[in-house]
Design brief:
By secondary structure, this protein is of the alpha/beta class. The protein has helices at residues 13-21, 41-54, 74-84, 97-103, 120-129, 150-158, 176-179, 202-212, 219-229, and strands at residues 4-7, 26-30, 64-69, 88-91, 109-115, 133-138, 165-167, 185-190, 195-196, 199-200. Strand 6, helix 6 and strand 7 (165-167) form a beta-alpha-beta unit. Helix 1 runs parallel beside helix 2 and helix 8 (202-212) packs across helix 9. The longest helix is centred in the first third of the chain and has 14 residues, at 41-54.
């Protein structure tokens, strides 16, 4: 079952609202200083408020707010989590995820980015030991639109029944359905694939989530999918 349909790199409440109304399970904001999609504190808090208060419709799926970090200290990450009201911490650097797991609340999920196939052993370790943790498989560079070798991932995953992971790298509304057929995939993460000229595109976000949700069993999300595909 699809557990994660994540729209990342949001920089405005408008983009966040589209993702929320389209029933994204997770929305991500970049908390790494100096990056192309880094959000300022006011925007981050506005997006957080929108999730907490602005879209509290009856029966709506609970969308989780993800903060993306890279090689930032535990204390800094904890402070930003509290300030922005984050639900999930996503680690994109050389961080020790087990240190963060020990320091963060047990109910706060951790997503750790790994490069496939370089980090296969570390992925297996997280899948076997991590509590409320997700491995994110990405390309070496990330953010380039480059696809991972899905065939190679599938062959590797079949050898390890315990492996479940979120897939990133080059995903689009057109290919996400096929991506979710790769053995072991429990979620998908997209940023540039739902943008036009560097800006989040409403139609692409809607199409991506609709395509990703086709096999999801959650009744409310399936109702949204049915409405957008008929």
């Amino acid at each position: 079952m699809v557990e994660v349909i994540k729209i990342c790199g949001l920089q405005s409440t408008e983009g966040a609202l589209v993702a929320l109304r389209s029933c994204a399970t997770h929305v991500g904001i970049i908390c790494v200083p100096g990056r192309k999609r880094t959000v300022d504190a006011d925007t981050a808090k506005a997006i957080s408020y929108l999730i907490r208060e602005g879209e509290e419709g009856e029966g709506r799926l609970k969308t989780k707010l993800v903060g993306v970090f890279k090689d930032q200290g535990v204390d800094e990450v904890k402070s930003i989590c509290e300030s922005y009201g984050l639900d999930v911490v996503q680690l994109h650097g050389s961080e020790d995820w087990q240190l963060f797991r020990a320091e963060l609340p047990a109910n706060m999920a951790i997503i750790k980015r790994f490069v496939f196939p370089r980090d296969c052993d570390r992925i297996l370790e997280m899948c076997s030991k991590g509590q409320n943790c997700f491995a994110l498989l990405d390309t070496e560079e990330g953010g380039t639109g480059e696809l991972l070798d899905w065939k190679e991932i599938g062959e590797w995953s079949r050898k390890h029944d315990e492996v479940k992971f979120v897939l990133a790298g080059g995903l689009t509304p057109e290919n996400v359905g096929e991506a979710l057929k790769v053995p072991g995939v429990c979620g998908v993460d997209v940023s540039g694939g739902v943008e036009t000229d560097g800006v989040k595109d409403v139609k692409k976000i809607e199409q991506f989530i609709s395509s990703a949700a086709q096999d999801r069993t959650d009744e409310r999300l399936q109702q949204y999918t049915d409405k957008t595909t008929h």
